[in-house]
């Protein structure tokens, strides 16, 4: 039987706070930018009754259960010693109502492993809820996004997963 090394909660919190604060001890940082959603700048498609928003800019989206979102995930950057790497806009353009309040304290968790930095962001609620996980390659040149959309009330056993990878 393999024994795992125990790490104190204080040590975990210390590392987490260092990463959020951009301390030199942190191996990486994530810069997450949210912004108010401006409906006038987007093409909104509603159901035939005009009650339920079905697409934004001609594509499905995550974050609301049919109403116009109030906030959007604008951009994500990984900051490491080697440079600043952006998640391509296609990785964030369909994510709305992120649970992120300008810091790493709400709906955001990360692992700054140099071999594969990982960022997870949750957003939305109810039928529009999602979890987006971004995994960066060690050189920052590729990012894979795994999007989990939580079950519809009409399909309680279905968890929709969509994976995309973009390379610079």
Task: Describe this protein's structure.
By secondary structure, this protein is mostly beta strands. It has one domain. Helices cover 8% and strands 37% of the residues. The protein is built from 1 helix and 10 strands. It has one helix spanning 9-21; strands at residues 29-36, 44-46, 53-56, 71-80, 83-86, 108-111, 118-123, 130-136, 142-149, 160-167. The strands form 3 sheets. Strands 6-7-8-9-10 form a 5-stranded antiparallel sheet, with no helix packed on it. A 3-stranded antiparallel sheet has the order 1-4-5. Strands 2-3 form a two-stranded antiparallel ribbon. A hairpin with a 5-residue loop joins strand 8 (130-136) and strand 9. The N and C termini lie far apart (43 Å).
Concise overview:
With 168 residues, the chain is mostly beta strands. The protein contains one helix and ten strands.
């Amino acid at each position: 039987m393999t024994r795992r090394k125990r790490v104190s909660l204080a040590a975990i919190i210390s590392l987490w706070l260092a990463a959020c604060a951009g301390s030199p001890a942190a191996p990486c940082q994530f810069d997450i930018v949210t912004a108010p959603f401006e409906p006038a700048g987007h093409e909104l498609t509603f159901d035939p009754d005009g009650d339920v928003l079905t697409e934004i800019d001609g594509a499905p989206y995550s974050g609301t259960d049919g109403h116009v979102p109030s906030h959007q995930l604008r951009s994500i950057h990984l900051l490491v010693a080697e440079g600043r790497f952006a998640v391509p806009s296609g990785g964030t353009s369909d994510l709305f109502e992120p649970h992120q309040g300008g810091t790493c304290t709400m709906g955001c968790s990360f692992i700054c492993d140099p071999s594969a930095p990982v960022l997870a962001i949750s957003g939305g609620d109810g039928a529009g809820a999602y979890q987006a996980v971004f995994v960066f390659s060690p050189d920052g040149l590729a990012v894979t996004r795994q999007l989990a959309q939580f079950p519809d009330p009409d399909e309680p056993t279905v968890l929709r997963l969509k994976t995309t990878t973009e390379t610079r």
